[in-house]
UniProtKB/TrEMBL annotation:
This is DDE Tnp4 domain-containing protein. One of its GO terms (molecular function) is nuclease activity. GO terms for cellular component: nucleus. Pfam families: DDE_Tnp_4 (PF13359). Its cofactor is a divalent metal cation. Its main location: nucleus. Belongs to the HARBI1 family. Signal peptide: none annotated. It comes from the Eukaryota.
């Protein structure tokens, strides 16, 4: 992401990253060595710190995003296959599928569109991304501020 042709994240925006990412501007990973997965907070296992609450909400958002992609890939099989289109066409395909999906949700099904199937999210897998990176202290402090504001 730090390469000249890497992803450009606009100021004030960020991507949710897993624990394999460093905390830097534009990337918001969970707190390390802190409870994270939703099942760790089940029952009466409420968050006990601002960092745990932040991680709980981070995990909930990631699961929501994964379910959305799962629903799209389930409905539009072209998104679940190895891409053979040029990148610019792939971007347009994803956008078109999102538009069709939202249209179906608003206006209902028709005879040409298959019904939506039940989609369960995969387990979240945290892995290294093959890139060594270091946390950005300013961004870590901002994440801590947000966690404490939630608390």
């Amino acid at each position: 992401m730090s390469r000249p042709d890497g992803i450009n994240i606009p100021d004030g925006k960020f991507y949710l990253g897993d624990a394999g990412y460093a905390c830097r501007p534009g990337i918001l990973p969970p707190f390390r060595k802190t409870r994270y997965h939703l099942n760790e907070f089940s029952g009466r296992n409420y968050p006990r710190t601002a960092q745990e609450l932040f991680n709980l909400r981070h995990s909930s958002l990631r699961v929501t995003v994964e379910r959305a992609f799962g629903a799209l890939k389930n409905r539009f099989k072209i998104l679940d296959q190895k891409p053979f289109h040029p990148y610019s066409t792939q971007v347009k395909l994803v956008l078109a599928c999102c538009i069709l999906h939202n249209w179906i949700l608003q206006w209902g099904f028709d005879e040409h569109v298959p019904g939506e199937e039940e989609v369960e999210p995969d387990d979240i897998v945290s892995s290294g991304h093959g890139v060594e990176a270091f946390d950005n202290d300013a961004w870590k402090n901002k994440r801590l501020e947000w966690a404490e504001a939630m608390w």
